[in-house]
Write a structure and sequence with these properties.
The structure holds 3 protein chains of 3 kinds. Chain A is mainly alpha-helical. Helix content of chain A is about 75%, strand content about 0%. Chain A is elongated. Chain B has a single domain, classed as MetI-like fold, CATH 1.10.3720.10. In chain B, helix 2 runs parallel beside helix 5, helix 2 runs antiparallel to helix 7 and helix 4 crosses helix 5. Classes of the chains: A mainly alpha, B mainly alpha, C alpha/beta. Chain A: It is found in: Cell membrane; Membrane.
Chain lengths: ~230, ~220, ~300
């Protein structure tokens, strides 16, 4: 059996349930849910990091959020709301919040105390401190949080298929429904998701690297260490 | 919430209890297996800087393969039957190794060179040095990784429900098919509770076994 | 008892993890006890009854397993395996040894171009194709459950649709919903196009009936496939579309067995007794107890068997 046969058949790329449409849906869910998560997690992370309070809340909350099975959450939202884009985006956003929140809080807390004191001595207000001192130092960490959030979301968005909402997971589910003969289709779904994940990783990784060169604040060890603390796909 | 349904399915070790037990087996077997694999593998990688980068990047890619795809693709690779729980255990072991090796590498790299040299100077052989000096110092970071993978494995097993083998995740499937949210909520609550319970247990073990690591990264 | 065994293994796992964590060692654990151990079933070995990913199949699976147990044949269930392609693969690789089947669709699975159209012709044709697969079909029941296309009562009125042939009036706008595998079935979009000239604007795959029902009621899809024994059709006032060209074959319920089970007279007798006692009305009632009353398939199956004196 040629596992590439599904990908190589031009017919499978076109039409309303073709590969291009599924990629579009997958990207849409991923982008929308990471943006939504960022909208919630970044301001909250800034607040927690800047005030240096609520650490326990962050780690407790993100631990619990990490334990929430995305499939269960999605199924719950779909059962209550019906199929569609919104349930998928909401469920995936919950998955994306912890890495962004943890990294943002760490980034804003981790600003060099010397720099912060110097800013204060210069008469900066709290808001000015956040924007002019802490922000530039925290940006690489925030980007790295967005990066691991995006990776998880791209891998997990496959469950959208179960909410009758398409995405690349459709190929995995349909291929599986076809039994052994559906393997090329399943394989296509898995490969495309993995490729998408690699692209996202390279893109955001490159952005983080560029930002880090500019600020040069976060050591490689710190970042690797934080990366190990970011959990899984679904 | 249909409390009556919960009561009916809890009485006399009924379905929910059985699924809970199965869930733990499917989630925790890979953690133990992966720990056994990752410690030597991670140590080897930490000693060879040249391959470490590409290898860790490769594990990153492995980690991004959707678990659903891995669950269904494994029978073709392993020659297992499609309904074999082994498929789920192996898939989760692969993910766990991919994540845990990174923690082990970080742990061993964090051992100060002076410490290693001091152990050498005291005449310790390489094996004894690794087991009695480096490993204990690396363990706090390994434990941090262990907690993350245990929690995410407990959540991930539920995806197996899509192929009829998700333990507590089967409650999601049931609820979705019937448009009935009680089993879904029960499943989510139990999975989160299990995850937090085992997270706490591992932390406890860490504090008992490695009293010096109190307050280390978590 | 088996469930308690799961729990025991789980606790052992937890214990082993706790103990071995300090020594960084630990035994690879005992394999999960749920693995279907039967390598073919029949004889003295346990018969594993598999079922598809919908309610009725699971109820039938329970009926078969419990009837076998009552007849002294050790049996267990492996419910919710998936679509026909998946559970037949499981039957062929020995993971399960009996599955509930439907005559017409089973024939189409093996021979998409079969000219058979009456129950008798289908049965005869099936016997032939199944012999090649080393599988045996039990005596089909009079209980039948066909796939059926439905629209909401309101949609039927507004657009004047009561038959599959009427769908040409709306097909360039309407969306069809059904299980994912329908896309490939000869009674799905391909058959609709060939026999009725109906080509929907879109086919949307649903893995869960509840979501499909909600979307049909919300107007996100206009046409959907159901089973004739599903309570949702009557409860929601759906209009079942007629099939004047006979695109959908008659579907009688019957157990499909691995040859090892078929060679065990006690097992065959127990399964045939279920088929003989089962009616279409029974199927509808059993489905409703599970789908609407949230009862478990094993309980409703036990009650039915007790009522018929089969367990």
């Amino acid at each position: 059996m040629n596992v590439f046969s599904f990908l190589l058949d031009a017919e499978n790329w076109a039409g309303p349930s073709g590969i291009w449409v599924r990629i579009g849906q997958h990207v849409f869910y991923s982008v929308a849910s990471v943006l939504l998560a960022a909208l919630v997690a970044i301001p909250l992370g800034v607040l927690i990091g800047h005030t240096r309070r609520g650490d326990a809340v962050v780690s407790g909350l993100s631990n619990a959020a990490r334990a929430v099975p995305t499939l269960g959450l999605l199924v719950l939202v779909v059962t209550l709301m019906g199929s569609g884009y919104l349930p998928v985006v909401l469920a995936l956003a919950v998955l994306a919040v912890p890495p962004v929140l943890v990294n943002t809080a760490a980034g804003f807390r981790g600003a060099d105390p010397g720099a912060v004191h110097a800013g204060r001595a210069l008469g900066m207000t709290g808001w000015q401190l956040v924007r002019q001192v802490e922000l530039p130092l925290a940006v690489p960490l925030v980007v790295s949080g967005l990066r691991s959030a995006s990776l998880q979301v791209v891998a997990t968005a496959t469950v959208a298929a179960l909410a009758a909402a398409g995405g690349l997971g459709r190929f995995v589910v349909d291929g599986q429904n076809l039994g052994p003969g559906g393997y090329p289709q399943m394989f296509a779904g898995a490969v495309l998701v993995a490729l998408l994940a690699v692209l996202v990783d390279l893109g955001l990784g490159g952005l983080g690297w560029a930002l880090q060169r500019r600020t040069g604040r976060i050591s490689r060890e710190d970042r690797d260490h934080l990366a190990t603390l970011q959990p899984g796909t679904a | 919430m249909d409390l009556d349904w919960i009561a009916r399915n809890l009485a006399d070790g009924q379905d929910i209890v059985g699924l809970l037990g199965l869930h733990l087996v499917l989630a925790l077997t890979p953690v133990v297996a992966a720990l056994v694999i990752s410690l030597p593998l991670g140590y080897a990688v930490s000693r060879t800087r040249a391959v470490a980068g590409p290898l860790l990047a490769l594990f990153g890619v492995v980690y991004s393969v959707p678990s659903l795809a891995l669950f269904v693709a494994l029978p073709l690779v392993l020659g297992t039957r499609i309904l074999d729980p082994l498929n789920i255990v192996v898939a989760l072991t692969i993910y766990t190794v991919a994540l845990l090796v990174r923690s082990v590498v970080d742990g061993f790299r964090g051992v100060p060179a002076q410490t290693r040299q001091a152990a050498q100077a005291m005449g310790m052989g390489p094996l004894r040095r690794v087991l009695t000096v480096e490993l204990p110092l690396a363990m706090p970071v390994v434990f941090a990784g262990l907690r993350v993978v245990t929690v995410s494995n407990i959540a991930l097993v539920s995806v197996g429900a899509v192929i009829g083998l998700g333990a507590l995740g089967e409650l999601f499937d049931l609820g979705l098919r019937q448009g009935f949210y009680t089993p879904i909520v029960v499943g989510i609550v139990l999975i989160v509770a299990l995850a937090l319970l085992f997270d706490g247990l591992i932390l406890l073990v860490q504090r008992l076994c490695l009293p010096w690591s109190r307050g280390a990264a978590a | 008892m088996k469930k308690l065994a799961h729990l025991a293994v789980a606790l052992a796992t937890a214990g082993a993890l706790t103990l071995s964590a300090c020594g960084a060692g630990g035994d690879p654990l005992a394999e999960p006890s749920s693995s279907p151990s039967a390598s073919g079933g029949g004889g003295g070995e346990e018969v594993v009854v598999g079922s598809a990913n919908f309610t009725e199949s699971q109820v039938l699976g329970e009926l078969y397993a419990q009837a076998l147990e009552a007849a002294g044949v050790p049996a267990s269930t492996r419910p919710n395996i998936g679509s026909r392609e998946v559970y037949l693969t499981a039957l062929q690789d020995g993971s399960v040894s009996v599955v509930p089947e439907y005559t017409g669709n089973l024939l189409l699975y093996y021979d998409a171009n079969s000219p058979a159209s009456t129950p008798e012709e289908i049965e005869a044709a099936l016997e032939e194709v199944l012999a090649e697969e080393q599988l045996v079909l039990g005596t089909p029941s009079s209980a039948a459950d066909q796939d059926v296309y439905v629209v909401t009562g309101e949609y039927s009125q507004t657009h004047g649709i009561t038959s599959l042939a009427d769908l040409t009036k709306v097909d360039d706008e309407a969306v069809l919903g059904g299980p994912g595998e329908l896309a490939e079935r000869s009674y799905g979009p391909p058959g609709l196009a060939e026999i009725y000239g109906v080509e929907f604007a879109e086919f949307r795959p649903y893995d869960a009936p509840a979501v499909k029902i909600k979307d049909l009621n919300d107007g996100k899809i206009q046409v959907a496939t159901f089973f004739t024994t599903e309570a949702a059709i009557g409860d929601n006032g759906y209009v079942a579309l007629e099939d004047p060209e006979g695109m959908i074959l008659p579907q009688n319920v019957a157990p499909l067995m691995a040859s090892a089970v078929a060679d065990n007279p006690a097992a065959v007798e127990a399964l045939d007794a279920v088929s003989a006692a089962l009616t279409t009305e029974d199927l509808t009632a059993l489905n409703k107890s599970v789908d609407a009353d949230r009862r478990n398939p094993d309980e409703v199956a036990a009650e039915w068997l007790a009522g018929k004196g089969l367990a």
